[in-house]
Amino acid sequence: TTHEKQYPEIESLTLKEAVVDLKKSMITKALEKNNGSWAGAARELGLNRSNLHNLATRLGLREKSVKPKP
What we know:
This protein is mostly helical. The chain has helices spanning 2-6, 15-33, 38-45, 49-58.
């Protein structure tokens, strides 16, 4: 198919792995395009900023922030 010619590495990935790779790529590109602004990247991706933070943390793109206890 066209996708196999365009992305030859896709044949060696499971669907889950391919989706994770795509999410990482899109988040990274959106952050670069928005000069590291999470809010800007979230707007571009159609996500809420906190949801983007959570997704990036799950994907290993961001360290989990720990809120200090009062």
